[in-house]
Amino acid sequence: MFVDLMSGCGLRNGEAAAVNLKNILADDVYRITEQVNQTTKTYGRLKHRKAGEYRDVPLPARIRETIDWYADKYGTVDGYLLRHPQDLSKPFPYYYLQNQWQRIKRAEVAEIPEGMVVYSFRHFFASNCLTNGIPITDVAEWMGHRSLDITFKIYRHLMPGSIGKAAKILDHGLAA
């Protein structure tokens, strides 16, 4: 579930831990309204947002299918898919995911490249969007970055080269 939410919607770890069926606005839109706070381990406001603010992100059909499958198989509590394994009245402590990740790596259950962490799936989302021509302004908004500069500094190398494209366009214009 975490992998799909992070790689398909760009959610942060704490945001994925707070996924809720009530936040599916349309077949292809998910509204991120809260996250599990790392310190308090309760639901709280989004990073770089005031209480009540939210972000709308794309919801690919494949991710929607995963959410529906998970809800059908495991049920929900007030619409939340992920809850504390020992106490369903509490939010999912997303550090459990890190512990599970480490167990999978040690057991070599799956081939996990050296240096890959759970957060890498969020980077995959941004990389996939940018290499396929999605405007960086949209990606920055979906990622919840405080400013476009952050997205630009991290992912500029993935954006299709504009200098070469500009040179060709200008050359064509100059030849006319």
Approximate shape: globular
Largest sheet: 3 strands, antiparallel
Share of residues in helices: 40-55%
Radius of gyration over C-alpha positions, nearest whole angstrom: 19 Å
Q: What is the residue-averaged pLDDT? A: 88
Number of strands: 5
The stretches of 5 or more residues where confidence is low (pLDDT under 50) are none
Q: Any idea what the CATH architecture is?
A: Orthogonal Bundle
Annotated CATH topology: hpI Integrase, Chain A
SSE ordering: HHEEEEEHHHHHH
Number of domains: 1
Look at the helices and sheets and give the structural class.
mainly alpha
Overall description:
The protein has a single domain, classed as hpI Integrase, Chain A. A 3-stranded antiparallel sheet has the order 1-2-5. Strands 3-4 form a two-stranded antiparallel ribbon. Strand 1 (24-26) and strand 2 form a beta hairpin. By secondary structure, the chain is mainly α. It has helices at 2-9, 13-17, 61-74, 95-107, 120-131, 136-143, 148-155, 162-175; strands at 24-26, 29-32, 35-36, 43-44, 55-58.
Annotate the secondary structure layout.
Elements (H helix, E strand, L loop, with lengths): L1 H8 L3 H5 L6 E3 L2 E4 L2 E2 L6 E2 L10 E4 L2 H14 L20 H13 L12 H12 L4 H8 L4 H8 L6 H14 L1
Helix pairs in contact: 1-5, 5-6, 6-7
